[in-house]
Amino acid sequence: MGSDDAAIRALLWAGLDDWISLDEVTWEGAHGDLSAAGRAAVRRLLDHVYREGLLVPGDLGESGFEDWTGSATRWLERSLKELDRFNWKPMGAGFWLRLSDEGEAPAREGCPADAISPRPAQADVRSDPRTGTASTPRSPECRVTRSTPASEGSSVRSDFTEVRPARIRYRTTEEGGRLSAPVSGVRSQIALGQFQSSCVIESSAGLDVLPLGEEVEVRIRLLSPEHTGATFIGATSVKLFEGNKLVATGSFLDGEQDTGAP
User: CATH fold of 163-252, please?
Assistant: First the structure.
């Protein structure tokens, strides 16, 4: 199997488990090689999955995963502009991909049997992390462990757990925040220095919904620690965004990384 085929397979497997970050796309396509050849490989990868209808690009908005409109050609043009905007180092930012109905069958065909594990019974219905809308998950899933190297110059410790406790307050609609309260497990972008990085916000008290206009204690799980983990460790304040909208502010409750169980 060629390198392009292996990259396509890896992304399809990832799509069985979750939405796919732009970091995963660049890693599977170029494996850290951001030369002209590496970027051409990422372009071929995106062109293939778009033309074949295997993966759909979109943004994480208030309604959940918001598909891009237009043709596969337009998707590719927009994707390359996004990558150029981040200098091909998205570090948790940028658009996302989701597995399409057409992509699910080929994803399962290539998934090794020992990597498939059925969801537990209580997870038979998934709640969309942005809207709370129930939907039937893909099951069983192909769970394949993937790893990426730390960014050059990264000072992330080997025991870094990417989860920290915080106290935050979601802005009300009148303050320019969300139109509705998010459910626990919502995805956001956290400001880390000059970058934003994708994260998951979970209630520390087991709340199903994180209220607007009230302080709440949460656990913030970073999705790309290999890129922004060092900044995440040292951060003291919290600013959460959805798109270009500031939706919540607060502060971390620990002096350093949280080592408790999630």
Answer: Elongation Factor Tu (Ef-tu); domain 3 (2.40.30)
Per the CB < 8 A criterion, the answer to whether 118 and 80 are in contact is no
- Rg of the chain in Å (alpha carbons): 18
Residue 7: count of CB within 10 angstroms of its CB: 22
What angle is formed at CA 81 by the lines to CA 80 and CA 84, rounded to 5 degrees?
85
pTM over cut 0.90: no
Of 64, 78, 83, nearest to 180 by C-alpha is 64
| Domain ranges (residues) in the chain | 3-142, 163-252
What's the pLDDT score for residue 122? 27
End-to-end C-alpha distance for the chain, whole angstroms = 38
Task: HSE, CB side, 13 Å, CA atoms: give it for residue 56.
Answer: 16
Residue 111, pLDDT score = 62
Q: Both tokens of residue 86? A: 């981040």
- Give the per-residue pLDDT at 93: 75
